Amino acid sequence: MTPLSHYLIFSALLFSIGLSGAIMRRNVLVVLMCLELMLTGANVALVAFSRAQGLEGVPVYDAQVLALFVMAIAAAEVAVGLALIVAMFRARRGVESTSLTSLKD
Amino acid sequence: MSTTNLISSSYSWGQFTPTLVLVGLALLILIADAFLPRLNKQTCPILGAVVSAGVACFTAGSSASALFTSLACAATAVCLLMAYDYRSLVYASVAGGKHEDGAAEFSALPLLACAGVCALVRSRDLIMLFASLETVTLASYAMSGYFRRNQGSVEAGVKYLILGAVSTGLLVMGAAWFFGATGSFTGDPRFVLAALSNPYLSVGMLLGVALLLAGIFFKVGAVPMHTWIPDVYQGAPTPVSAFLAVVSKLAGFGALLIILLPFIMLQTTVRDMVHSLVLMLAIVAAATLLLGNLGAIPQQNAKRLLGYSSIGQAGFILVFFVSLRSTIIGPVFNYLLAYGIATLMAFYALAILRMQRGSEELSVFRGLGRTNPRTAFMITVSFASLAGVPLTAGFLAKLASFQSLIGSMGRPQFIGLWLLPIMIVCAAAGFYYYFKALRFMYWEKPQANDVPVVFPPVCTCVLALGTLLLIVLGVTPLLF
Fold it and tell me: Which residues on B lie below 8 Å from A11 (Cβ)?
């Protein structure tokens, strides 16, 4: 059986790829994908911990329930996000985050 | 014994009546908007405001969750009234003013977000906390970017979405590690204590709590997760900025209380851990105070100024958390109440001025002292309360924040010694930037073509009620 640490390293890897992409990428669509990657990384950790906390092969399902909620909410987030990106594209003919400069100090 | 049974048995349907009523109403409004083409769209915000004010009265009680629920519902009612007075801009945004299809969504979204807050303050585990917090946040993204023909609004929506989704990711990861260390989402002190006494698990636990706090700090606008606030408040439609400043902030502080609860209960058993937590909260509070109050000083845009001011006010609320006692719930609520009333008044006046003078710069307040003396007085009271002038509720709220810090002077890290001077400087800075608006009202002459601003009756009633509350709460020891 794969030890818990492998899952956690995998999840941390996904999460940090997502986080660094969300911070560094310019294209808002790619940023949205990176945000999904962050949530997926967290979901892997949740499911791995749900197994690890279980007794005699029966996982603690609480964490898996949260993982389901996360997926549903991530889908809602993408729906709102794509709508905003379409509005942004119509207004500016582009989806680069560098063009978001009308609000600043 | 499985924890799943514990979670589902700790809730009852009755607790979620406010949530269900608000969600039901929001769905009703959405369906009516889609299927009743002759529906007068003006009725939607009024209906929403009446129902959420009704929920606010109905749920009023003495428990913390009842207090937070009624404040959130009352603030939502005021925001919906503001949306009613803002309707010509809302209609112009949905279809360029040609028709009003879809304008009712602008009333349904705050109701959904408020339903999220009502569920949030009753949550006892991280699953419910996460789901209800996201209900608030998702509705807020859509509201911020609602004026899709307006560059600023769309930009605010996109920025809020990206930064908010990062904080959601941090929150979920934190919940995962918290679960991994304690084996439960409930934050039961026994499980937390067991995790903290194990050297391996306590590392995971600290990682989890740090990530959870980072996610929550985003909602309350604490440094270093504050960057979205000025931009989003400036770009979003004014009723939405008011909603974010009051209801969303309230949700954040409710969630912070729930997450810190196990540590409040355990503070005599795990001293070291609690001391480092307190030190971290004190550093965040100090940074938030400094950044919010000093950042507000050069601002010329009134909404941006209120955004920085809301960061600064969040700093004063965070100071309560430094004492980490279970008695802070009362003062935190009182502070949020005083801040909420004054902020809603300021945004309401600003929304009307934006409609009639077409600007959101501070200069829009020019000459109000001569053209509209009564309204100018009410706006003065609201800004005075935000600054903390004696005889207003804001003064007593700020005083309670100072007292709470002085009461926790006994902490080993001498937090009070460096935090107190910072608080004094920030309170003084507040007088400067809040009074900039007052200077425009009383010292600047109205321009030659300025006519008196017509404040609609709803606005005048809300402002008068707010003024009355701020003064009554500030003069009588009703709350403080």
Answer: 176
